[in-house]
Write a structure and sequence with these properties.
Number of helices: 20
Helix content: 40-55%
Oligomer: single chain
Length: about 400
């Protein structure tokens, strides 16, 4: 196919117009425009630009890149298919757009270079002969694209599984820190409770919000993040929300209500000072607001405090008439989490067994007797029988072994 046949089709793309705004397609259109205007030198530079922008994405050809870009499109047809809607005119336009992109994916680099050769002088022969070629074909079918939207959704939520909510906007996290099952040792009963609640969320059943509380280093945050590694939770998305952003959660909920994915809003290391009134915002979000929490959303929070709100002795001996009501108001926040999971320090036997299992996982071959004696001694000087302390001990052991 010649360039003059591709250019009109790209100009008429409507259902996937967002694809045309990306750097790869801007470079392609510059190339087609230069060829149409018979500007050989501009075409040569544009061709090199296509190669540059294409390979920056990691794709080896236009078809491969287009398939990936269409899979996460936020255009009107992608949204329609995601929601399972019907619109004959929009569907027809989307099919035509995919046909145009398929033709572009099949465009021969040799044909393009031949067109440039006819526009340039002999001094360009060496440069033209040395031009790289991208792969032809590789474009997904329309039906395959439609099934992808129906299964995986569209846009940002098809591209990423973990997000950070910042200043009223979602930022995707390409490589989230999510420990796998093999890294999660100890606290099996606690993780089982969190898994059961999350499984109900993924299956579309009513679920509770979850509070994981207890000592630092016990694996509360890791438990929540590891949910993204569970094979059957592919539709699950994790959105981390800072405490200072709690007032924006209603806007976030409105954005994700009704989507086919399930969402955990993750608030890590949650605690409130006694004069911090933002805990009232969270109380309303958890239970009591005019807008109900969507069925596809649950709030998971971690805290080192069981009741979340710091209290002092003056809270109990102040000059308020109804002291108990004040105390009750401050402790009621935690009660609005239907599932409360305690992560308490391990006893010495559990700590030593956890250390032994972690050591074997890390490839440490120190005999059990010697290893556990050293771990017990370490624990005396580093209070806290937690997975974090065990890992710190083993890291120190590895460092000592490296020096010897």
């Amino acid at each position: 196919m010649e360039s003059r046949d591709l250019r009109p089709g790209l100009m008429a793309v409507s259902a996937f117009r967002d694809i045309l705004d990306q750097p790869v397609m801007k470079a392609v259109r510059r190339l087609l425009d230069a060829l149409a205007l018979e500007r050989g030198e501009e075409a040569l530079e544009a061709y090199a630009g296509v190669c540059d922008t294409l390979w920056r994405t990691g794709a080896q050809g236009l078809g491969e890149w287009l398939s990936s870009a269409l899979a996460v499109s936020e255009g009107p047809y992608a949204r329609l298919a995601e929601a399972g809607g019907e619109n004959e005119a929009l569907t027809r336009a989307a099919r035509q757009d995919v046909d145009t992109f398929t033709a572009l994916a099949g465009w021969s680099c040799e044909d393009c270079i031949q067109e440039m050769t006819s526009l340039l002088g002999r001094e360009f022969e060496g440069a033209l002969a040395a031009l790289p070629r991208w792969k032809r074909g590789g474009m997904t079918s329309f039906e395959g694209l439609k099934r992808g939207y129906q299964v995986n959704g569209a846009g940002l939520f098809a591209r990423y599984r973990a997000f950070v909510w910042e200043d009223g906007a979602l930022r995707g996290v390409p490589h989230p820190d999510c420990p796998g099952p093999e890294e999660m040792l100890g606290y099996e009963m606690q993780r089982g409770e969190v898994l059961a609640n999350t499984r109900a969320l993924v299956e579309g059943r009513s679920v509770n919000n979850v509070l994981l509380y207890g000592d630092s280093g016990t694996g509360k945050s890791a438990t929540v993040k590891s949910l993204l590694t569970v094979p059957e939770f592919t539709s699950l998305r994790l959105i981390e929300v800072d405490k200072e952003q709690l007032g924006d959660i209603p806007a976030l909920l409105r954005r994700i209500t009704g989507l086919r994915q399930q969402f955990i809003l993750f608030i890590d290391d949650l605690a409130f000072d006694r004069d911090d009134r933002t805990y009232s915002v969270l109380k309303t979000i958890l239970e009591g607001g005019v807008e109900p929490r969507p069925r596809n959303v649950a709030i998971y929070a971690t805290s080192n405090r069981r009741h979340l709100v710091r209290q002092t002795f003056s809270d109990r001996t102040g000059d308020e008439v109804d002291i108990q009501e004040t105390i009750g108001e401050k402790t009621s926040l935690a009660e609005r989490f239907g599932v409360r999971v305690a992560y308490l320090p391990l006893n010495q036997k559990e700590f030593l067994e956890l250390t032994r299992r972690l050591a074997r996982q890390m490839g440490i071959t120190t005999p059990d007797g010697e290893l556990l004696a050293a771990a017990a001694q370490w624990e005396r000087y580093h209070p806290g029988r937690t997975p974090r302390v065990a890992r710190q001990f083993l890291a120190s052991l590895l460092e000592e072994q490296a020096k010897s």
